[in-house]
């Protein structure tokens, strides 16, 4: 036969007649034993395939004898789980898994077969199984064209993936566009070697994949070489210290002869030469080792190469090698409470991953990308048996990107098990996903509530302050209220002393941003000489960049005039960090000098990968500005890094020898008052004469400097102490309240100042030798806040409110750990006491079972101020992570009468919305896949392990024994490609929190679901509540449990969860509205508002009134937009975790695209939708629909 074919081929070269050419080729291809052209349409049983195509409607693998199935062809389906025969042509009304959507007109696209019907939740009209397709072929090399997609638009998830003989032809294709449009299909061509007599197509890695057609074209015309795999997909982590990376494949030929093979490689775009191998191999089936170590030095991205094996008399076979170079993955080293910790206090206010490893990647900022820290990626779960309940609280990062924390809104439950979860949805700035992390701990016994001091505030939001980023609050000499915004603007209010409310809001344009550009302003203080008719204020400000900012752009400006519009620059070129360690707060001392809190540049004194800047001479200190010495000049405070110049600093000249600023001379207006204060947000000159300052300690991972003898210290001496070695990866440090003394050192090293030991030496840094103790000048702390509290704004309370219970005490905002105000009691509040008496002797928190009423539950409290006339407090709630159901604002804490010692019940959330598939009853066990970013209902359904059928699987011989090459599904950015897919296969648990916000204990006596569809909702992990044995919920505490929705039919369902509090006087009812939406696949889908008819176009009434449009937000940008680009949209105001379907219609109501996404715990989400080039310019409507309601936006496409 081979000889005969050669004759025919020679004739082709001699003849130029078109008809005869095709005749001869046709004869050759039909010759027995030679590879033949095969074109298969996948469809329902009734459709007639196009001319020249055979049909497949789901029959099991075997000889095809039916009409439109060719002559003596063998092909069909096998079960993916065990390779047994699978008949997909039975079951349901079609029957089977084949479909004809009747659009578009081309049957090759209108028809399909469900390959992964087992991905479809609920009932399916066909056979619910996953299959793969095989066709019997002669051994050879083939070009295979496959097509996947679905003309119909459905809300159920789908990501189409097709693999041909181990080669990934189509990956994660998601159809877009109108029903039947070309953008709903994707085709691809791959060249593969068939060596076992069967060509195999599977959908491994896909979700609900549907195949349309396959076209198999012979390529080889004789003997050929081939590899044991058609494709190798590998991943490596970029590193400067590469480890050996290899894989091995067997090399064979169709004649099974011993031959000499010559290898060569071609490379795709981006890079070349990154593979190495021996060029020649001999034998029947030699094993070839290919080295790809060099890829670890390539820029981040995906690279492709093709390796050919040539042999005399054989067509060269090839293997495609794809290598994805990703950033090294960050991970959590440890957290507090520690994993497996027991007897943890129920009043624990911060659960934090404060020891992180985030690799430094050239060209990227260091640390955690705080925008990826959300309530979907960081969770605290209560574990009961095999189920979990998500705890209500606030998640946040840090300005340095060096910690990830969770602050529970209420005290934890006693004797309970909790799991702290960080998913791979948290990423570094290089887009590398964190290795998932969990830590489990158990709480101790309950703590009975008590009132340490009798105070009570009522919280009231100040209108007009929402969604603004304020940084400092001050009561002016005119008795008006001043609020500095981070952007440098100042808002002024009058104060109603009766109600405490603010009014007559006006914005003072300080000209800071207009003169200096975007600002990050923190400090605002009025001069003691300022009066109501002569306002004099001072503002500290830096450039508005909080990432990659310049090293010396800190400034202090003086503002004067009735509206503070006259600006004079006092100091320029103060240091600042790359991030949010800035020129912080300002305070006038009793000596009328201006004191400045200057943030550090680094984590712990030496350069580190997160902060990426060394210290400067003035950073990490408390500075003192003598306004008399300054006079009318503008001081340039830029300092040198030349140590020899610093060591030779003059004692009389304000300039160093190189012309930079010298803070050490008697002529210098700006001097270092105290050093080693890492990052103190605020300063409090107390009436007892002491200067107090709360400071943020470093998260883990920082580096400390090595000592250098002879370095000048702030007191003028030269360092001559013990040799202090540099350390790296230091443990997390405590947050402290310092009592600042002139000339003191407070623990943050700065090698330019000859200060090397971090805090108390070995006691705080186990990387030191045990002999390393604190610097001789270290002054210690007045109070230990412990870890991860982020103490910021602070004041001395001066009012006699509450019979003087708070007078003289220091109030500090705990920004992250606690989200409350802590009250600190100095040992003495008057001048003249012995020095040691001024430290803190007692403290009272706002959070916890003994919390002070009205002083907890804030969203990142940053700063506060007291109105001394009334004792009322005003607090900045900063809302660091912009949680949608909370808002940044100024909150009034109104002095209130002490209420009765009763509990008071509150329920969260106010409404639960659930979308579930009719008939699905399996519960999403949230102990499983705890580290999935789609925990609680959004994870892709877990697939069964796919068996390796031995078709071209290469042997991985990585010498370093790591798992770099096992990160299947990770792309360039390390994302899980299925993160945006909904999981309707399991019913989602929805957490409910019943909390006690009163003064006394709450006795919960009843818990039930009522309403017209109560039977379709169920309480899970229900606490044992009944009138005869009520549950005690202590002050500032809560209980949590879950509610799930089990729809019995399609459509909207309504019910109510009710809780009854057994109060002394009368029962108190709190409730949670329950709204469910039952849906089915290929049926009536209430999300889309109409019948999803597979045989017709989908037309909906876009003029139908929307549900609850006012409470929902849908922001679309850019708008107008260009055809062929992308629409980006932000959602907010929906209910926690509910699926929301986005439908894009034209002005006639024709549906072009549908995409269902899952909002997070705060009802928000952001996503994108491509604008197909097939769409015409005009007006379109994007409608967001969920159980919470509907919102739409008009879009203009140009």
Fold topology:
Blueprint: H1 2-14, H2 18-29, E1 38-42, E2 54-56, E3 62-64, E4 73-79, E5 98-100, H3 107-110, E6 111-114, E7 131-136, E8 140-149, E9 160-164, E10 167-173, E11 185-194, E12 198-202, E13 210-218, E14 225-227, E15 231-237, E16 246-253, E17 259-267, E18 280-283, E19 287-291, E20 301-311, E21 314-326, E22 331-336, E23 341-344, E24 351-357, E25 378-384, E26 387-390, E27 393-396, E28 404-408, E29 417-422, E30 437-443, E31 457-461, E32 470-475, E33 481-485, E34 490-495, E35 502-508, H4 512-516, E36 519-526, E37 536-543, E38 554-560, E39 566-574, E40 583-588, E41 594-598, E42 621-625, H5 627-630, E43 635-636, H6 643-647, E44 670-675, E45 684-685, E46 691-695, E47 702-704, E48 727-730, E49 735-740, E50 783-786, E51 791-796, H7 801-804, E52 810-814, E53 820-826, E54 840-844, E55 861-866, E56 873-877, E57 889-895, E58 905-908, E59 911-917, E60 955-956, E61 990-996, E62 1002-1010, E63 1017-1020, E64 1031-1033, E65 1038-1045, E66 1051-1061, E67 1068-1079, E68 1084-1085, E69 1090-1091, E70 1113-1117, E71 1126-1132, E72 1139-1146, E73 1151-1158, ...
Parallel strand pairs: 1-2, 15-21, 23-30, 39-43, 59-67
Antiparallel strand pairs: 1-13, 3-4, 4-7, 5-6, 6-13, 7-12, 8-11, 8-13, 9-10, 9-12, 14-16, 16-19, 16-60, 17-18, 17-20, 20-21, 22-24, 24-28, 25-26, 25-29, 27-28, 29-30, 31-57, 32-33, 33-34, 34-35, 36-37, 37-38, 38-39, 40-41, 41-42, 42-44, 45-46, 46-49, 47-48, 49-50, 51-52, 52-53, 53-54, 55-56, ...
Helix pairs in contact: 1-2
């Amino acid at each position: 036969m081979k000889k005969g074919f050669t004759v025919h081929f020679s004739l082709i070269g001699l003849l130029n007649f078109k008809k005869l050419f095709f005749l001869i080729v046709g004869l050759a291809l039909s010759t027995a034993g030679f590879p033949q052209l095969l074109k298969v349409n996948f469809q329902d049983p009734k459709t007639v395939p196009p001319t020249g195509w055979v049909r497949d409607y789901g029959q099991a693998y075997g000889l095809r004898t039916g009409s439109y199935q060719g002559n003596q062809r063998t092909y069909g389906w096998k079960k993916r789980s065990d390779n047994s025969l699978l008949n997909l042509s039975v079951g349901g009304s079609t029957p089977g898994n084949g479909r004809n959507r009747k659009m578009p007109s081309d049957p090759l696209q209108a028809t399909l077969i469900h390959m992964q019907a087992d991905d479809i939740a609920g009932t399916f009209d066909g056979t619910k199984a996953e299959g793969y397709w095989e066709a019997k072929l002669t051994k050879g090399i083939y070009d295979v064209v496959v097509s996947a997609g679905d003309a119909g638009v459905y809300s159920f998830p789908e990501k189409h993936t097709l693999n041909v003989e181990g080669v990934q032809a189509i990956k994660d294709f998601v159809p877009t566009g109108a029903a039947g449009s070309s953008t709903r299909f994707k085709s691809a061509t791959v060249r593969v070697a068939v060596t076992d007599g069967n060509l195999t197509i599977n959908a491994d890695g896909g979700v609900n994949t549907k195949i349309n057609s396959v076209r198999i074209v012979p390529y080889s015309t004789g003997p050929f070489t081939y590899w044991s795999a058609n494709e190798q997909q590998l991943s490596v982590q970029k590193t400067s210290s590469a480890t050996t990376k290899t894989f091995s494949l067997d090399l064979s030929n169709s004649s099974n002869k011993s031959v000499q093979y010559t290898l060569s490689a071609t490379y795709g775009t981006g890079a070349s030469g990154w593979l190495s191998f021996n060029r020649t191999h001999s034998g029947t089936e030699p094993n070839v080792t290919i080295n790809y170590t060099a890829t670890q030095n390539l820029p981040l991205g995906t690279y492709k190469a093709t390796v050919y094996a040539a042999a005399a008399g054989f067509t060269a076979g090839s293997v495609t090698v794809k290598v994805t170079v990703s950033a090294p993955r960050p991970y959590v080293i440890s957290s507090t409470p520690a994993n497996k910790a027991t007897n943890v206090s129920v009043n624990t206010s911060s659960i934090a991953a404060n020891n992180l490893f985030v690799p430094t990647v050239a060209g990227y900022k260091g640390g955690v990308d705080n925008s990826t820290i959300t309530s979907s990626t960081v969770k605290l779960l209560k574990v009961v048996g095999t189920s979990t309940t998500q705890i209500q609280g606030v998640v946040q990062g840090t300005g340095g990107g060096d910690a990830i924390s969770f602050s529970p809104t209420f005290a934890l439950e006693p004797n309970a098990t909790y799991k702290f979860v960080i998913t791979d949805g948290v990423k570094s700035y290089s887009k590398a996903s964190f290795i998932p992390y969990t830590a489990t701990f158990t709480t101790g016994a309950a703590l009975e509530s008590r009132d340490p001091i009798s105070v009570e505030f009522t919280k009231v939001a100040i209108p007009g302050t929402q969604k603004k980023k304020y940084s400092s609050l001050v009561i002016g000499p005119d008795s008006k209220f001043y609020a500095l915004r981070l952007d440098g603007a100042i808002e002024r209010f009058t104060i109603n002393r009766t109600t405490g409310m603010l009014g007559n809001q006006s914005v003072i344009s300080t000209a800071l941003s207009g003169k200096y550009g975007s600002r990050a302003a923190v400090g605002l203080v009025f001069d003691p000489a300022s009066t109501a008719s002569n306002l004099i204020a001072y503002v500290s400000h830096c450039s508005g960049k909080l990432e990659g900012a310049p090293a010396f752009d800190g400034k202090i400006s003086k503002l004067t005039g009735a509206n503070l519009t006259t600006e004079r620059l006092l100091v320029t070129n103060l240091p600042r960090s790359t991030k949010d360690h800035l020129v912080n707060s300002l305070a006038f001392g009793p000596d009328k000098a201006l004191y400045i809190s200057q943030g550090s540049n680094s984590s712990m004194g030496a350069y580190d990968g997160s902060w990426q800047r060394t210290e400067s001479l003035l950073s990490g200190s408390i500075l003192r500005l003598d306004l008399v010495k300054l006079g009318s000049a503008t001081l340039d405070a830029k300092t040198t890094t030349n140590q020899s110049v610093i060591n030779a600093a003059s004692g009389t000249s304000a300039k160093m020898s190189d012309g930079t600023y010298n803070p050490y001379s008697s002529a210098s207006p700006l001097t270092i008052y105290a050093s080693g204060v890492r990052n103190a947000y605020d300063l409090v000159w107390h009436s007892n004469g002491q200067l107090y300052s709360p400071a943020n300690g470093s998260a883990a991972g920082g580096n400390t400097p090595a000592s250098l003898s002879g370095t000048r210290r702030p007191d003028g001496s030269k360092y001559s102490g013990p040799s202090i070695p540099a350390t790296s990866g230091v443990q997390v440090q405590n947050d402290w309240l310092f009592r600042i003394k002139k000339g003191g050192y407070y623990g943050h090293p700065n090698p330019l100042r000859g200060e090397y030991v971090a805090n108390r030496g070995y006691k705080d840094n186990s990387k030191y030798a045990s002999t390393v103790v604190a610097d001789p000048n270290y002054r210690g702390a007045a109070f230990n806040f412990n870890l991860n509290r982020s103490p910021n704004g602070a004041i001395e309370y001066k009012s006699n409110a509450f019979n003087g219970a708070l007078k003289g005490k220091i109030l500090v905002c705990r920004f992250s750990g606690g989200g409350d105000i802590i009250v600190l009691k100095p040992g003495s509040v008057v001048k003249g006491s012995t020095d040691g008496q001024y430290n803190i002797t007692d403290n009272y928190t706002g959070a916890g079972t003994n919390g002070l009423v009205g002083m907890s539950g804030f969203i990142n409290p940053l700063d506060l101020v007291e109105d001394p006339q009334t004792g009322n407090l005003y607090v900045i709630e900063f809302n660091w992570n912009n949680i949608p159901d909370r808002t940044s604002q100024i909150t009034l804490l109104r002095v209130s009468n002490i209420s009765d010692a009763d509990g008071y019940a509150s329920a969260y959330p106010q409404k639960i919305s659930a979308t579930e598939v009719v008939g699905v009853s399996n519960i999403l066990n949230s102990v499983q896949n705890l580290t999935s970013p789609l925990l609680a209902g959004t994870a892709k359904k877990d697939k069964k392990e796919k068996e390796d059928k031995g078709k071209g699987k290469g042997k991985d011989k990585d010498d370093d024994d790591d798992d770099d090459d096992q990160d299947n599904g990770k792309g360039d950015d390390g994302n899980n490609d299925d993160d945006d897919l909904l999981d309707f296969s399991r019913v989602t648990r929805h957490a409910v929190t019943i909390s006690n916000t009163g003064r006394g204990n709450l006795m919960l006596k009843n818990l039930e679901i009522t309403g017209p569809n109560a039977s379709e909702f169920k309480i899970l992990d229900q606490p044992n509540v009944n009138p005869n044995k009520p549950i005690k919920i202590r002050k500032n505490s809560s209980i949590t449990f879950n509610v799930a929705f089990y729809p019995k039919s399609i459509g909207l369902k309504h019910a109510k969860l009710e809780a009854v509090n057994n109060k002394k006087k009368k029962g108190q009812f709190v409730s949670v509205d329950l709204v469910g939406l039952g849906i089915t696949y290929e049926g009536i889908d209430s999300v889309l508002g109409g019948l999803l008819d597979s045989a017709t176009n989908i037309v909906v009434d876009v003029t139908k009134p929307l549900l609850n449009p006012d409470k929902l937000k849908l922001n679309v940008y850019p708008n107008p937009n260009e055809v062929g680009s992308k629409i980006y949209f932000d959602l907010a105001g929906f209910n926690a975790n509910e699926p929301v379907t986005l439908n894009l219609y034209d002005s006639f109501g024709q549906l072009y695209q549908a995409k269902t996404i899952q909002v997070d715990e705060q009802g928000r989400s952001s996503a994108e939708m491509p604008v197909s080039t097939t769409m015409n310019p005009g007006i379109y409507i994007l409608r967001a629909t969920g159980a919470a309601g509907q919102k739409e936006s008009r879009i203009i496409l140009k």
